Amino acid sequence: MEKIPILKMGRFLLVTIQVDLYDRLALDLEANIIDAVTKHQAQGVMIDISAVSIVDSFMGRILSNIASMTRILDAETVVVGMQPAVAITLVELGLPLMGVYTALNVEKGMELLHSKIVPDEDADFDD
Amino acid sequence: MEKIPILKMGRFLLVTIQVDLYDRLALDLEANIIDAVTKHQAQGVMIDISAVSIVDSFMGRILSNIASMTRILDAETVVVGMQPAVAITLVELGLPLMGVYTALNVEKGMELLHSKIVPDEDADFDD
């Protein structure tokens, strides 16, 4: 079961991270998200990390990389559901997740993505 | 990281199962979903099992239980993203997931939930 599913929801993709992102899995995830953005012409990616209680510089870099890669493909990335302790750790590690949008939860992340994407903003889920 | 996150999206909850559901984790998931349905007054629960490649009678029963429990609380449960091999295994095991709605993917599951829920059907995600 070592594959993180990428769920397509309308124009957005949703990824929930529930397992430790060791090297291989993280690189696979990066590649799979980029493939999915291209395949589905997604305009936004939401990464839920509410189950992640430990974060390190590797994971911080992976999140930054995904955001940078999707931006080149014209999609925005929002990291949602960060636990307070993770935010503390990230700043203490000197990793303020530059260039990555964050939101408190999936719903707020969805609002943020909607606000970042200008055209046909009434479309959602059902389209 | 042994906690499966339950994401609230409008009137629905989304759960993606990415790890093996051993006894304790499965029972916790059951309890957490029921708690979340009550807390958020959710009208539907979607369980994505696209990352699940092996299913056994225990997992089949857990899915049936969750569907029955949420139904008592006036919420419907849809299992989405089942791999073909899992469908084959379930039927061969004699576990046709009685009483559980299924859909091919999250989007179709969302449509199914919308069709099952009669009032204020224009509400979604953003509400």
UniProtKB/TrEMBL annotation, chains A, B:
Source organism per UniProt: Spirosoma flavum
PROSITE patterns named among the record's database cross-references: STAS
Name listed for the protein in its UniProt record: STAS domain-containing protein
CDD domains per the UniProt record, alphabetical: STAS_RsbR_RsbS_like
InterPro entries: Bact_StressResp_Reg, STAS_dom, STAS_dom_sf
Domain (STAS): residue spans on this chain: 2-113
Organism taxonomic ancestry: Bacteria, Pseudomonadati, Bacteroidota, Cytophagia, Cytophagales
